[in-house]
Amino acid sequence: MALIAAMSLTVHHRQAVRPHWPEELYGQVLASAAERPVLLNHVRVEPELGSPARGGLPRTVARRTATGWSLTGRKRFATGVEGLDWLLVWATTDEPTPRVGTFAIPGTATGIEITHRWDHLGLRASGSHDIALHEVEIPTDSVVDIAAHGPGAEQDNRAGAALHLPLAALYLGVARAAQRYFHRFAHERIPANLGHPVARTERFRRAAGEIALRLDSAEQLVFGGAERVDAADDTYTPELALGARILADRHAVEAVGLAIRLLGNPGLSRDNPLERHFRDVQCAPVHAPQEDVALLAVGSRALEGTR
After folding, report:
1. Same domain assignment for residues 212 and 101
2. Domain Acyl-CoA dehydrogenase C-terminal, which positions (predicted)?
3. Average pLDDT value for the chain
4. Global confidence as pTM
5. What is the spatial distance between Cα 94 and Cα 64, in angstroms, rounded to a whole number?
6. Shared domain check, 7 and 112
7. CATH number at residue 298
8. Count of alpha carbons within 13 Å of 206, Cβ hemisphere only?
9. Count of structural domains, the chain
């Protein structure tokens, strides 16, 4: 649920920073949200294209109708799709001069087929199933944004990079849960040949220090960045946010991995909470833009700044 909530909040943040929704449509979303939780998420990845963070344009087609648009295509990894109120679908129009846009589809619309193929290592409860759109009809004013077909319509990995901070925070939460279990294990585990909790040994204390160091520093980066975003600090660049996410993801994965190594086989047992935290945190580096793409953006800005 945390992942789906984070993705919904980033939609609202993007709208607050750069209003682009039709006013009446967004007003409808807000009115519903005042009465109950309303979940929204972008649905962009496709079987043929892969992640749009690496370039390319969608094969899902939006065709003009007498009353609006009809969308047909296939999408992958539609996180939370079974509970989404709105699917923000990336598609190409069938106009003589094609355009690329984001189309808002109600989650209850006719023609949405959920394939229930999600069978993942981690974040299994996110329900990130594949979907097929079969001539899903929406009105004309359900276009969130649209642009001319071409390189400029491809995903901009720098735009709104600060929106990835909630994702980093989510995986830090996973790592903190693993840390709490590690501490409890260390205090409760008393080997017969030792006679006292392993928490008193240098090995476990050193590991606890390493885990704390990684997570504390990562939290400072992520939450410090979030405070600057909230304060509309224009010196907080997308590259700084990307860098914060890269380091936070690395630290979270490494911290949980260290806890696993200290526990040994019990840590990988399916009846151990640490095993689930280990699986979940492996998903951290998978979110777009992935580390190599993010590093390219960070490095490019760093070099351009020293010309």
Report:
1. no
2. 167-288
3. 92
4. 0.90
5. 7
6. yes
7. 1.20.140.10
8. 5
9. 2
Side chain identity, residue 186: A
Token pair 């280990």 in the structure block, residue = 278
- CATH number of the domain where residue 68 is located: 2.40.110.10
Which residues have C-beta within 8 Å of that of residue 296, sequence separation ≥ 6?
A: none
* Cα-based distances in Å from 147 to 6, 23, 92, 101, 217: 26, 18, 10, 6, 40
Place of tokens 């607050």: 16
Query: Do 76 and 201 share a structural domain?
Result: no
pLDDT one-digit tens code per residue, 108-144: 999 999 999 899 999 999 999 999 999 999 999 999 9
Per-residue pLDDT tens over the stretch 28-62: 999 999 999 999 999 999 998 877 767 778 999 99
Hey, what are 42's tokens? 């972008």
- At 253, give phi and psi (nearest 5°): -65, -45
Q: Return the residue matching tokens 């682009």.
A: 20
Range scoring the smallest mean pLDDT among 51-65, 94-108, 136-150, 232-246: 51-65
Q: Give the angle 140-142-143 at the CA atoms, nearest 5°.
A: 90
Does pLDDT of 150 surpass 80? no
